[in-house]
Amino acid sequence: MSDEHSDTPGKPTLRALARQRRRAFVAGLDPLAHRLAFKALPSPLAKRLEDARTVALYIGIEDEAPAQRLAAKLIDMGKVVLLPRVIDRIGSMEFLSWHPHAQLLPGPFGTSHPEPGDGPMAPDAIIAPLLGFDRAMNRLGQGGGYYDRAFARHPDALRIGLAWSAQEQEAIPADPWDLPLHMVLTEVELIEGNEP
């Protein structure tokens, strides 16, 4: 459930390679290292999120970096945590309030989402899954356009990629509609882009 709604040449191949690389990296991780990954917010990221009232996470699927592990720290900071709910197969999703102890409902593509509750909310920051990223803050997603559309619909939201360090690539091709990330958090570092 992610990026690009039309591919430039090479993206399908990059996706296949990125999936294999991520799968191999996660399979080789020490179980303790995996359990401890993404349980803390680095100080620079916490500082960038100070003014954010709502922060969108996602529930990691298979070998995706587990964004849900950040929820407790964000809630401790006084943030409202949101999760995406896929609305249709053409790339539409909305963000719903969520607490880690709340039940999740099954969604399309293996996703899970909260009960609609009070309805959709606008995120001040979006922490997004990805297959690959580069130091120019380009993001390679799954190909469905969901996060492209979310970034466009919430242009003032801080765009943060969450990834395993092995997902970094030298260069990700960017289409005209691709909005770069502001930063990427991996299990070993926070990489900041040039945008404010």
Automatic annotation (TrEMBL):
Binding site for substrate: I59, E64
Reactions it catalyzes: (6S)-5-formyl-5,6,7,8-tetrahydrofolate + ATP = (6R)-5,10-methenyltetrahydrofolate + ADP + phosphate
Name recorded for this polypeptide: 5-formyltetrahydrofolate cyclo-ligase
GO terms, molecular function: 5-formyltetrahydrofolate cyclo-ligase activity; ATP binding; metal ion binding
PANTHER family: 5-FORMYLTETRAHYDROFOLATE CYCLO-LIGASE (PTHR23407:SF1), ATPASE INHIBITOR/5-FORMYLTETRAHYDROFOLATE CYCLO-LIGASE (PTHR23407)
Source organism (scientific name): Sphingobium wenxiniae (strain DSM 21828 / CGMCC 1.7748 / JZ-1)
Keyword annotations of the record: ATP-binding, Ligase, Magnesium, Metal-binding, Nucleotide-binding
Highest taxon above the source species: Bacteria
EC number: 6.3.3.2
Biological process per Gene Ontology, one example term: folic acid-containing compound biosynthetic process
Pfam families assigned to the protein according to its UniProt record, in alphabetical order: 5-FTHF_cyc-lig
